[in-house]
Amino acid sequence: MYSESFVPEDDVLLRARERAADLGCPSVLPGSGALLRVLAASMRARAVVEVGTGAGVAALWLLRGMPDDGQLTTIDREVEHQRAARESFAEDGVDPRRTRIIPGRADEVLPRLTDGHYDLVLVGAEPYAYPEYVEQALRLLRPGGLLAVDDALHRDRVADPTRRDEITTIVREVGRALRNDDRVMPAMVPSGDGLLLAVRR
Question: What is the model's pTM?
């Protein structure tokens, strides 16, 4: 709990989190958000993709770490989520040119994005589709680019081998696959609900 609250969220983030709760869409926990901001800043990430806009909580953290000329492409099929995210961005004073909000299914949008163009890709929606999203993310990343998979511990179930429900099994297998993938250097960080990181070789 100390780790999660170490970097406190301001009123804009708290209101974005409230919008997410009202809409019933998950958000990155504060510890993961703070880490994503640090990673985006350390990389000076100018081209970022987010799968799962929600109400814009993760996007706000990322945008705050990105340079002023960086652009975040965020994908969500729910129009209400995108409307809430736009409200969050406006409240934070984000230049509209810094965000590209694409409506639609991620499995249809991701294949249309440019190979090897992005510095960072955050996968944070629809765990059942993580295998496909992760493969697309690896295609999109430049060498040295970073993949981040949220909810990688799935409420602490992934580490428990007796948990064999469908979603836990999928998330667990994604972690194993990245751990054994020669294309990346992975690490599991226990911030939030787990953030699986992998740098593209």
Answer: 0.96
The stretches of the chain forming alpha helices (DSSP H) are 11-23, 30-43, 57-65, 79-91, 106-109, 130-140, 166-179
Q: Who's near 48: CB < 8 A, 6+ residues apart?
A: 40, 62, 66, 70, 71, 72, 73, 118, 119, 120, 121, 122
Q: How far apart are CA 25 and CA 55, in angstroms?
A: 8
Pick from 108, 104, 85: nearest CA to 23: 85
pLDDT at 125: 87
Check residue 95 and report its DSSP letter.
-
Percentages of the chain per state (helix, strand, coil), in multiples of 5? 45, 20, 35
